[in-house]
Amino acid sequence: MNAENAHLVTKSGKAPASKSEPNPKKESPFGATIWMDGEWLAFADATTHVMAHAMHYGVGIFEGIRCYRINDKESAIFRLDDHVDRLFASAKIVGIKLPHTREDLRAACVELVRRNRQPECYIRPLAYIGQGPVGVYPGTNPPINTFIATWKWGAYLGDEGLKKGIRCQISTFTRGFVNHTMTKGKITGNYVNSALAKSEAIANGFQEAILLDTEGFVSEGSGENIFIVRGGKLKTTPLTSILDGITRRTVFELADSLGLEVQEVRFTRDELYVADEAFFTGTAAEITPISEVDRRPIGDGSPGPITKRLQSEFFAIVRGEKPAYRRWLAPVLFG
Ligand SMILES: Cc1ncc(COP(=O)(O)O)c(C=O)c1O
Question: Is 79 left (phi over 0), alpha (psi -120 to 50) or beta?
Answer without folding.
Answer: left
